[in-house]
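Reproducibility note. Readers wishing to regenerate the assembly model reported in the main text can use the exact inputs given here. Chain order matters: entities are listed in the order in which they were concatenated for prediction.
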Amino acid sequence: MSAPADATASRVPAGPMARFFRRLGEGRDNSLGLLAILIVLVVVLSFVSPYFLTATNLLNIGRGIAIVGIVAVGETIVIIAGGFDLSVGSVMAASGMIAGFLVTHGAPLPAAFAAALAVGALVGFINGAIISYARINPLIATLATLAIIRGLGYVISGGRELVISDEAFLTFGVGQVFGVPYIVILLVATFAVFAWLMPRTLFGRYAYAIGSSAKAAQRAGVPVSRWRIVYYVTCGLLSALAGLVFVARTGNAQPSAALGIELDVITAVILGGTSLTGGRGRLWGTFIGLLLLGVVNNGLILVGVPAFWQQVVKGTILLVAVLYDELRRNRVEEA
Amino acid sequence: MPQPLLELTGVSKTFGPVTALDRVDMQIGAAEAVGLIGDNGAGKSTLVKILSGLYPPTTGSMRFDGRAVHFGSPFEARAAGIEMIYQDLALCGDLDVAANVFLGRERKKSFGPIRLLDRTTMREDARRVMRELGTDIAPERIVGGLSGGQRQLVAVARALQFQPRLLLLDEPTAALSSEKIRVLMGLIEQLKARGVSILMISHRFTDILHVCDRIVVVRQGRIAGELAPHAQPPERTMAAMHAMMTGDALGVSA
Ligand SMILES: Nc1ncnc2c1ncn2[C@@H]1O[C@H](COP(=O)(O)OP(=O)(O)OP(=O)(O)O)[C@@H](O)[C@H]1O
Ligand SMILES: [Mg+2]
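Running the prediction on these inputs yields the following C-alpha cells for the assembly.
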C-alpha cells in the first residue's frame, strides 16, 4: 500500500488507503480515534466485570442498540444532507401502533408491515416537503411533527397499548439464527446496505453535496428539494422499521414507545463524526458511535450505576461530541 | 450579424415590487464575447441568472441557437449548452474536485438494475480537464482545502467539461490576484478562439476592454447602450462607459 499522503497539489496517491489517510490528515475522519476509545473501554470493562465479554452480554448489547441503530442510519443521512429529524421516536410509535392495530384485527403480517412503513414514508414526506418548500427550519418542523404524530398516536389509541399475540411478529423480535438475533442481523444489514450506497450512488453523492452547500448544488442543476424529501422519506422508513422491531421485541404496541429516543440516535450520529452543519459524515462512524454508546450503557449497568444517571452520562457524551465536532470544523476551515 | 446564438426579446424580471429588469432586448453572436457592465443593483446578475436557468423571466422570450427556450432549472440550461461561473463559484467545499466538476451531471454506469456513479471515469476526466487548464490539482482533493485561485480553476473546469456554447461569468475576477486574472483572461480568449460565446460581468474595465468584442451597459434594469471597445482610445471608451452607467447625457450614443 502507498504511504500516507502528504497532501501536495502535484502528487497525491490514489487508492482507498491513500484517500483514507488523507482524510485523517485533513481532520475529516475521526473514526480511528473513536475506535481506539471503544477498544480501551472494552478492555477496561472486561477487567471490571468478568460477565462483560460473554457472548450473552455482547448479544444483549447488540439487541440493545439495534433499534437506535436502524434509526441512526436514517438520521445520519438526513444530517449529512444538512437536515435534522427529531420526529423519529414518534414515527416509531405511530408505525408500531398501526402494525399492532392491523395485526390484532386480523390483517396479514406483510400488510401490517407495509402499512407501518407507509406511515413512516408519509411522515418523512411531510417533513421533507415543509422543510424544502415552506423553508421551515428542520428542528422546528420536525419538533412540530414529533408532537403531532405522538399526539395522534395517543388520540387514536386512547392511550391504551395493544398486546401482540401474532407468533411470526414476535419471532421477528426474539428469533435468531446460529445464535445471532434477527434484529442484530437487520441492524448490520441496514448499515451495510447504506454504507455501500452512499459513496456509489447519486443518492449518497447529493446528500453530501446538498449538506455542503444546497445553493451550490441547486445552481449545478441538482433538484435539491426533491432529494431532500427522499432523505426524509428514507429516515421515516427506517424509523418505521425500527418501530416494528420495537413492537416485536416488547410484544406490545404503545403510544409512548421510544419516547426520547432521539437523544440516543443523535448522540450516536454526532459521536460518529457526522457534522451537525451537514456535508460530512460516515455511516461506519455512526456504527462505531453506536457501539460506543451501547457499551457505555451496558458498562454503567454492569458497574451498578443507577438508571437515572445514565441519562446524565448520555447527555454529557452528546455535549462532548458536539464540542469536538465544533473544534474539528474550525481546524479544517482554518487549513 | 448572422443568426445570433442567443436572442432576448422584451425580457423583464420583477421581485415583488422591485423591477430588476425592464424589457431587455439583447443578442449574442456565435464566438462573440460580450461584456456586461452597470452600477450596483443595475440588474446584471439577474440577467445572467435568467440565462442560466436559475430564474424564469417574468415576461419576455429567449431564443437559443434558433429555438425558443424556457429553462425551468439550471439543469435544462446546462443541457442546452449554457454554463455559468458564479461570482461565489458555487462549489461544495466538502466534496472533492472530481465530484464538484461533475456535480449535477454525474457519469454513471449500470450495475444490474441500478445505476452507480462511475467514479473512475469522473476522476480521470477531471484530471484531464484540470491539465488542460494548466494545473495538476488532483481530482481527489477536497475543494474546501484548496486556495482561492485553485477553487476558481475548479469552477472553470466544471464549466468547460461539458463544452458549452455560451459561457456566463459573473464577476469572475473579483477574488483573484492580478496574476490569476491574467490566467483566466487567457483562458477566456482560448475559449473564444474555440468558438464559445462569452457573456462576462465585471467591475474591472480593464478585463472587459481586454477580452470583449462588445460592451453592453445596463442601468436601472434597462439596456442603456452599447460600445465597441476598440473603436476609440481606451480612456474615451472608459469615459463613455461611465457616462452610460450613470445616465450622464454626454455618453448616450444610442
Ligand atoms: N432574489 C431577489 N429578490 C429580490 N430582489 C432581488 C433579487 N435579486 C436581485 N434583486 C434586486 O434586483 C435588482 C438588481 O439586482 P442584481 O443583483 O441583478 O444587480 P447587479 O447589477 O448584479 O448588481 P451588483 O453589481 O451589485 O452585483 C436589485 O435592486 C436587487 O436588490
Ligand atoms: Mg451582481
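We highlight two features of this model. The radius of gyration of chain A is 20 Å. The longest helix of chain A spans residues 307-334.
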